[in-house]
Recover the amino acids of this structure.
């Protein structure tokens, strides 16, 4: 589901959101597959790939290897080895790792609801529509650390067959991202709804927001559907802890849509609140984060790094009114890959993954509420010094693709991957973890002793596609308190 700098290559590569592709097509209902024989929904576990011993606290990093059809799992904090294991999700095996043609699954969006790890699959049962896989922690309780859970342990033919895994057919084109609506337990799924293989000026079909009743409940899952009010919904962010209010970054028409998800608690559909327009066309509007005040910050940049086009950050309140914006200054335009709100900061502060050229890295943005200004006020230099942007084994420089902060804002995971990769060759991406020390001000944040979690996983072997790391694009933190 995702390379975004050189459009002409898209026809021959897989369709990551930063490497677009898939055909159109929608339906109006989804259906949940049968539950396997192992594990009960909601059961807490102390062992296995998603377990945490009683009385302990654990932070587990789940990482979508979106090109290589796998989810990797690491222990970032708490007991257990760094590399916990991985889930093989190659439902349509890619001969020799070649991602051209029809052999695409592409796990992308991730969500953890306290019992299950949910994974959006971009192109199953076919290229035109995606599905949802749900893995209960209980079903993975008996696996030893370091195990790659083989497909045959939970999949047979074209259906789930064990470990309590559930398949929900979403029957929509490119469901890309999701969050959990805490009061109801529903998943809120942003549907891109357009063909990522065509030029972005053709991304005009209206997107949707699905409220999918928790797949932990067996039986049919009829989604609650809301028109997003925009085209090309690329990512979703919750604007409050319960995800009652959510925002979508919409790349098809350069807008931000805000929706009210509170009706889900009464078994009704989410409802649109407002749409904010960014007054520049032909730009990438893909990543956003809440501001902690009920509003949202969104990044906008040209589709190709340019010395003549600016990148900007736009700040809207919960009614889509402009609070402020800033031009992200530099010798060339920035590429905004991800944003994350620093919780508890006095005045909104965000981490931003900057992916362009030699300036790539993780920077800190600060907003002044009274003045409506946003500025770059710091950088996590320790990641630069640790070599986070240099591939071990590959020649392609790495760049930050994804960010995830823990609930306290002191633990940070960073997914890094190559800017370009071979459609049938290895990639040398990785994932890093660091604790943050903010001192007296969040802008003074220091990354303490960055650790490359990816170094603990099986080394990339050019002859073994199941070890490749071409696009580590999505992170989810699983925080378990014993």
């Amino acid at each position: 589901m995702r390379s975004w700098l050189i459009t002409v290559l898209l026809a021959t590569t897989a369709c990551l959101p930063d490497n677009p592709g898939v055909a159109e097509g929608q339906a109006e209902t989804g259906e949940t597959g049968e539950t396997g024989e192992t594990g009960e929904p909601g059961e807490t576990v102390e062992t296995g790939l998603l377990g945490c011993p009683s009385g302990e606290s654990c932070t587990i990093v789940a990482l979508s290897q979106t090109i290589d059809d796998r989810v990797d799992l690491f222990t970032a904090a708490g007991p257990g080895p760094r590399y916990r294991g991985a889930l093989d999700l190659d439902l349509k095996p890619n001969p020799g790792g070649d991602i051209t043609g029809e052999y695409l699954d592409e796990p992308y969006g991730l969500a953890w609801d306290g019992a299950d790890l949910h994974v959006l699959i971009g192109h199953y049962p076919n290229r035109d529509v995606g599905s949802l896989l749900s893995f209960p922690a209980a079903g993975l309780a008996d696996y030893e650390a370091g195990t790659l859970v083989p497909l045959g342990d939970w999949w047979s033919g074209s259906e789930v067959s064990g470990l309590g895994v559930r398949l929900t057919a979403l029957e929509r084109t490119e469901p890309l991202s999701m969050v959990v609506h805490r009061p109801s337990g529903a998943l809120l799924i942003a549907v891109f709804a357009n063909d990522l293989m065509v030029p972005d000026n053709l991304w005009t079909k209206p997107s949707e927001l699905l409220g999918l009743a928790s797949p932990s409940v067996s039986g049919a899952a009829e989604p609650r559907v809301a028109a997003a009010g925009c085209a090309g919904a690329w990512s979703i962010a919750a604007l409050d802890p319960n995800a009652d209010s959510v925002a979508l970054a919409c790349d098809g028409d350069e807008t931000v849509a805000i929706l009210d998800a509170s009706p889900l608690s009464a078994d009704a559909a989410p409802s649109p609140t407002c749409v904010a327009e960014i007054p520049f066309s032909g730009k990438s509007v893909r990543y956003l984060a809440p501001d902690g005040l009920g509003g949202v910050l969104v990044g906008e940049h040209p589709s190709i790094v340019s010395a003549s086009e600016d990148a900007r950050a736009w700040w809207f309140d919960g009614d889509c009114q402009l609070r402020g914006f800033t031009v992200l200054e530099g010798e060339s335009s920035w590429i905004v890959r991800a944003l994350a709100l620093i919780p508890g900061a006095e005045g909104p502060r965000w981490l931003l993954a900057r992916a362009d050229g030699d300036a790539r890295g993780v920077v800190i943005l600060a907003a002044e509420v009274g003045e409506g200004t946003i500025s770059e006020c710091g950088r996590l230099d320790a990641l630069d010094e640790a070599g986070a942007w240099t591939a071990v084994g590959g020649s392609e420089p790495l760049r930050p693709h994804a960010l995830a902060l823990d609930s306290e804002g002191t633990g940070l995971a960073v997914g890094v991957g190559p800017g370009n990769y071979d459609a049938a060759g290895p990639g040398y991406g990785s994932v890093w973890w660091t604790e943050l020390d903010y001192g007296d001000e969040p802008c003074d944040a220091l990354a303490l002793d960055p650790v490359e979690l990816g170094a603990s996983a099986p080394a990339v072997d050019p002859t073994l596609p199941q070890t490749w790391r071409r696009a580590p694009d999505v992170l989810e933190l699983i925080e378990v308190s014993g």
In short: Confidence is low (pLDDT under 50) at residues 1-15, 19-42. The radius of gyration is 20 Å.
